[in-house]
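Researcher: Let's run the pair from yesterday's discussion. Sequence first, then tokens, for each.
Model: Starting with the first of the pair.
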Amino acid sequence: MQQGKLPFTGLEKIRFNVPPFTGKEYEYVRQAVENKQICGDGAFTKRVSRWFEEKTGTAKCLMTTSCTHATELAALLCGIEPGDEVIMPSFTFVSTANAFVLRGAVPVFVDIRPDTMNIDEKLIEAAVTEKTKAIVPVHYAGVACEMDTILEIAKRHNLFVVEDAAQGVMASYKGKALGSIGDFGCYSFHETKNYSMGEGGALLIRDPKYVEKAEIFREKGTDRSKYYRGQVDKYRWQDFGSSYLPSELNVAYLYAQLELAEEINAWRLARWQEYYGLLTPLAKAGKIELPIVPEGCVHNAHMFYIKTADEQECAALKEFLEEYDVVAVTHYVPLHSAPAGMRYGRFFGEDVYTTKESERLLRLPMYYGLTAEDAAFVAEKIREFYGA
């Protein structure tokens, strides 16, 4: 993996992200072309789907064009209708809410925990009304939400649980793969994720009873999946739906990385641990805060972030790192404070942590190929910023 050189300078920039690449991607894309099937659900899609089913223990994995579309499929399977309410954190990507807003539902945002940046499970039940249809926990940075409590609440109130595990591939909660714990789980393979196909996603389905309906929604409302399996003589329009199938070319690209999934995971975890060790003295001195991984959670080093004193210090540190060609980035503007969030959703209770914590969070470079020397340089510059 090579760093990208800055134009006209010859200097090496430590990027925030470099899409993962193993070297087999070209070969597998070529194979997909030679197979003469480059649309959806070809040989590579079947291979990748089985890989995730075996890895997660879920009943079915359906590859999609994005995690956004995986979440939209989940919303369809939950039977979301206009006026329904769906509980989720405000500190998340817009797709978490959009998938339900498109069905006419109201996102009900609750505050996050400051330790993990995940939804505060203790606040969920008070936000439940007779209109609530689902809970959508978001596993931020590949660190699991408190799923036992969330599942108990969902069971008491007969609610669906849709896991936004966009950042959670290869992470787990009490031995269970993220995305396989709730009714439905949604993965992302965007270029910023640990495993990438450029744009892509997957829907994990825990209960087999939803598989046939999901296949119909995913195949433009037809039973085309049954047709390809030889279960019907012709495929027919059965229900509404859309085209959620990714190209074989994209999935072939992803498969090359899944073959090295453990190696990629180990590489990222090594860099994460190096950051943590090098920055611990600053945290002990009260200058910054480091990520927290609760007991029972196995994370995947999707990101390494630090928390500064406040928004102003965060911006100053980001600018300081840029002077040394280190790209560090902030993250989501909380949805409830965005124009669409105010229009389509509502915040339940008090925003104690969501805005404050999001404003002081800075993500450091993290990707497969980031070297130990790179991580040491980034940590050195952060220590220099704080005069340590």
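Model: Moving on to the second of the pair.
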Amino acid sequence: MPVTQHICRRCLLEELGETALVQSLEELKAALPEDEKTDSGEYERRLAICRECDALNAGTCVKCGCYVEFRALKERMHCPHEMKKW
């Protein structure tokens, strides 16, 4: 019997096990200058909101196509949703 693989819509990349993609994202996050990053508390708050959003699809935002884990890290970014959730 074939195994059915399910994609987690409301998961972040780190939770999906996409190791090469996660590694690339971590490198991008590390390269971002500290003065452009939001603080860790705000970052986690933003990710918590994204995890509950219907626009999250396997680590990306269907509203803009970004990787939410990178967008949420940038201080001057905002949620692309019509309601600007953060």
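Researcher: Give me one sentence on the second I can quote.
Model: The chain has one domain: 1-86.
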